[in-house]
Amino acid sequence: MISLGIIGTNWITEQFIKATDETKTFALTNVYSRTEAKAESLIEDLKKKDIDISTDLTAFFKKDFDTVYIASPNGLHFAQAKQALENGKNVIVEKPSTSTIKEFSLLDDLAHKNGLYLFEAARHIHEPIFKKIEEIVDKNREKLSGASFSYMKYSSRYDAYLAGKNPNIFTTKFSGGALYDLGVYTVYDAVVLFGQPEKVDYDAEFLASGVDGSGALTLKYPDFDVNIIIGKTKNSYMSSEIYFGRDTLLLDNGGDISHLDWADDNKNITDVPALKAENPMDSEASEFARIMTEKDQATYDKLLKYARTVNRILEQARTSAGIVFDADEEK
C-alpha cells in the first residue's frame, strides 16, 4: 500500500481514510493538525495505532511518507499542495484544488517538473453510478440537447454565519461560497459529460461577506446550454436532468448522485440500474492508487485536463458575477 499523510481532521478526512482501508490502497502513517488533541481524536475514532502526529507543517512534510491528502479550507489548498510537491510528495487535494487558474498551473508545472502526481479529489466522477451516466450520454450523444443540474443544500455552518460568526466556507479569505463548494460537483458533471463550454455566466446571490450564498450558472455549448443552480443557504429537492430530445435521464442530485431514471415522451419512467458504494470515496481511492501503481499516464492526463478545465470555468464564473477572493490579489 502507498504510505499516506493527511492534512485536516474533519469528517471528509475520516471518510477518505475509511475508503483507503476498505480498498486497501493507502496506509495512513502521518497526520498534520494545528492541535495535537484533534489529531489524536481522529486517530482514536479511526482505531489507528503508531501514527505520527505533527503540529508544524514544515516538519510534517519532512516525514517519510509518499502521498498527502489535503482537506483543509479552500484558501489553504494552494500553499499546502505547493509545499508538498516541493518536498517530493504526491498530492491528493480536495476540490477545488486552487482558488485561481494561475495557482492550478503553478501546481501542475511543479508536479510535472518533480515527476509527481497531482489529483483533484472530485470523488463522484469515479463512482460506478457516474460511469453509468457517461455510458448513457455516449450512447445517445447524437440526440443530446442540454442538461439542468441542481445541488442546493443548507450548510451546517450557515446558522453560525447568521449569528455573526465567520465560518471559513463563507469568507473570501478562504475562497468560500456556493460555487467553490457544491458548484464544483455540477461543473465537473458538465465538463466530464460534455467537454469545455464556449461561454460561462454566473448570476450570484451575494452574502454580506462577499461570497455567493447561491446562484444560477449557465454553460453555453455550440448546440445546447447547461443550466445549473447551486446554493448553501437553502435546500432544494429538484432532480437533475440530461435531455435527449423526447427522452430525459433523471438524476436525483447534481452532486451526490444515488439514483437514475429514464423518462420517455409518454411520461413512462423506468429505473436505470446503477451501483452506488456505501462509502462514495472508495472509487476515487482505488483509481488514484491504481494510476500511481500502474503509472497510467493516459488516465492521469485526462483527469488533469478535467481539473484544469473545471478550475478555469470556476474562475470565469465568479469573475462574471464579480466575486473576488483574497487569492486574486496575488495575481
Automatic annotation (TrEMBL):
It holds the Pfam family GFO_IDH_MocA_C3. Signal peptide: none annotated. InterPro entries: Gfo/Idh/MocA-like_OxRdtase_N, GFO_IDH_MocA-like_dom, NAD(P)-bd_dom_sf. Residues 157-223 form the GFO/IDH/MocA-like oxidoreductase domain. It comes from the Bacteria. Residues 3-119 form the Gfo/Idh/MocA-like oxidoreductase N-terminal domain. GO terms for molecular function: nucleotide binding. Gene3D superfamilies: Dihydrodipicolinate Reductase, domain 2, NAD(P)-binding Rossmann-like Domain. PANTHER family: PTHR43054, SCYLLO-INOSITOL 2-DEHYDROGENASE (NADP(+)) IOLU (PTHR43054:SF1). This is Oxidoreductase. The lineage of its organism: Bacteria, Bacillati, Bacillota, Bacilli, Lactobacillales.
